[in-house]
Amino acid sequence: MESTVWTRGEACFASEWERIGLLAHILAESRQGRQASQGELDQLRTLQQQVEAFRREEGGWAAVAPPGLSPLEFDVLACAAAPEAEPRLGWLFMTLQPGAPTPYPTPALLQEILAIAPEETPLLYGALSETSPLRLGGLIEVAGGDPYQPLRPAAGVTARLLGRPAVTGDLPGAVLVKTPARWEDLVLPSDRVAMLQEFLLWITHKATVVGEWGGGDCGGPVALFAGPSGTGKTFAAAVLAARLEWPLYRVDLGRLVSKYIGETEKNLNRLFDAAHGQPMILQFDEADSLFSKRGEVREARDRYANMEVSHLLARIESHSGPVILTTNLRKHLDPAFARRFQVVVDFPRPDAEARTRLWQRLLPPRMPRDPGVAPAFLGAAVNLTGGSIRNAALHAAYLAAGAGSPLNLGHVALAIWRELGKDGRELSRTDLGPMAPFLPREVPC
């Protein structure tokens, strides 16, 4: 017989799934008028004891479940996760509820499988209510109040429970950021690095503070990264994602905002429903344009625009997962919203020392270069942001490659000149400071 390969987490839950499978089998037999055998009842009693002991152990359910769940709440969560943990149980559920569109159990099926007496039915529906630990903890999703609508585990719950790699599909309205980033590559003042580490604590220790210690759950967490363009806001978000080993998704509002009334809210709901509880970071750029001080309502469209912003605020606050908003114009943010951030990090323009470190790290390490191309000289020469230094370093490298020679200060000066000219303003050689003598004479000024 071919052996089954289980992760450690899946092996720990074997008794849970075996018990649910046996309960479903006994139900199917009873519908045919056949009583459970004594052997099946003895086996069920043994499995029940194993399950009760397992639920009291550390690990296992503690990966997702808050402390203090009742036996019935554990049963509901186990039945909801069972089709994803053991596909055979999903198929079995479908045979027990013919015509059901999904393999997930309905409240009506749970009442039968768990042999809940009519007078105990309110306890089952209490476990499914919006104020139950299962719903407040983002563990299950209920399609509606209809007893024949399925309930399922929230996205990512089963993967976390069993220690499986999270598998995510396309996220509506967002694009995956594929920026390689390491913590040691951050070039920021030490106090800003400390603030980024504190934001990590909000993410990694939420289960302890909220679940075990009873702290208030403010959603998210949500951070604001503020600073001029090119100062490393997106790179810092990528560093955090890399540290967590989670993907970073940049939300493309152009794909979400619609001119048709009500469509923007629907698009936002699809985004947050897909991301809720998943191990990922969402990043919204240009937060100042989204959450600026709301102006006077002059026409119907203004009122709906304010409603869309309010809806987005509500979804961000109720979202279970980290959200990072970036802005170049922090002063334009509505103060009423700014108070809702857990962490606010200002990204300053780099000083000469930071620029030196950036040049050192961003010039291709194996590129041949003249001795005069010293990062300390480049860092002190021209006041560039980190993004501009990255662009100039690569541009200079391509100039050197095209010339077939080691990198020299002429290549770097021309690359910086091109970078400074991107904003369309008129330039003079004085803008290059100490680099001016190295700008090729044929460059028009």
Described by the principal axes of the CA atoms, the overall outline is elongated
- Major sheet description: 6 strands, mixed
* Major β-sheet strand ordering: 3-5-6-7-4-8
Helix fraction bin: 40-55%
How far apart are the first and last residues' alpha carbons, in Å? 79 Å
- Total DSSP helices: 20
**CATH overall fold name of the largest domain:** Rossmann fold
CATH superfamily membership of the largest domain:
P-loop containing nucleotide triphosphate hydrolases
Specify the structural class.
alpha/beta
N to C succession of SSEs:
HHHHHHHHEEHEHHEHEHEHHEHEHHHH
Strand content: 5-15%
Radius of gyration in whole Å, from Cα?
29 Å
- Structurally, the number of domains stands at 3
Q: Spans with pLDDT under 50 lasting ≥5 residues?
A: 1-9, 293-305
> What is the CATH class name of the largest domain?
Alpha Beta
Mean pLDDT: 84
Q: Please count the beta strands (DSSP E, at least 2 residues each).
A: 8
CATH architecture of the largest domain: 3-Layer(aba) Sandwich
Walkthrough of the structure:
This protein is an alpha/beta fold and 445 residues long. The protein has three domains: 8-162, no CATH class; 174-346, P-loop containing nucleotide triphosphate hydrolases (Rossmann fold); 352-438, Helicase, Ruva Protein, domain 3 (Orthogonal Bundle). It is 48% helix and 8% strand. The chain contains 20 helices and eight strands. It has a six-stranded mixed beta sheet with strand order 3-5-6-7-4-8, sandwiched between helices. Strands 1-2 form a two-stranded antiparallel ribbon. The relative contact order is 0.08. The model is unreliable at 1-9 and 293-305 (pLDDT under 50). Keywords: ATP-binding, Nucleotide-binding. Residues 219-351 form the AAA+ ATPase domain. GO terms for molecular function: ATP binding; ATP hydrolysis activity.
